[in-house]
Amino acid sequence: MTTPAHPLAPSPQPAAARGGGVLRLDPVPLGGHRDEDTAVVACTGAGGERLLRNVTVPTLTPHLPDPATRTGTGVVIAPGGALHVLAADHEGDLVAQRLAERGIAAFVLHYRLVPTPTDEEGFAAAMRRIGDRDHLAEVSRAQRPQALADGGAALRLVRENAAAWHVDPDRVGALGFSAGGYVSLVTTLDGTAEERPSFLGAVYPAWWGEVALPQPAPPLFLAWAADDELGDAVVGSCLRLQDAWRRGGLQVEVHAYARGGHGFGALERGTTSDGWFDAFVRWVALTTG
Question: 3.40.1010.10, 3.40.50.300, 3.30.70.260, 3.40.50.1820: which CATH number matches 19-288?
């Protein structure tokens, strides 16, 4: 059983107004957590993108569109990072900004992570272990209840505050990248009706084990690159997910790009995978319209 999410009391204060009239609110703790988060920036990517580690307090950060362009649709975004770090920018805030500019309210979920050593040598050793597929599968299975708790709390919170955030509670979806795709899938497959997203986007996810679909299961959008460095852990997962939805007679949209590698997110790589975002936005509009 998951811990109930708390409606906003009081409403969060605006943290910053961004381009395109997007309003970013302060993060909201989930599931009754009120203690101090211990998250730190682990490192930055080549473009300065943040990777967070040791997230101990799950939070949800709203990015609300300009009232003149809002569509009433909301999306909970779960960044990836092998359940050990969070790609907070190019699979989180940057995606949220782009969605909000298209009129879609976006909510970035910082879910709890596997604890890693605070010293750099120990952290590096922990990160090397995630290259072991069996180890990563074991970690994912162990994290499944916590992933459900955080993902489910995020979906419930958005629906509980639908009026304040100007979203239709029946049009609140989820979008997860890599390990965030695992979190979004767990929320979809294991969650209650209140926790289950209205639609689901999974971009280069890794899924371990069987796919037992709930009733009803939401429409699914899948995107990945054939040259993903994680190989069958991602490509095989996507094909199995596609087949499960297809066999269930459910709506599934598939974009398998020739090039793009793993972890492209909102980054422009000059490859065909750059088209996933526009494809997703169009799919959401047609699916929820």
Answer: 3.40.50.1820
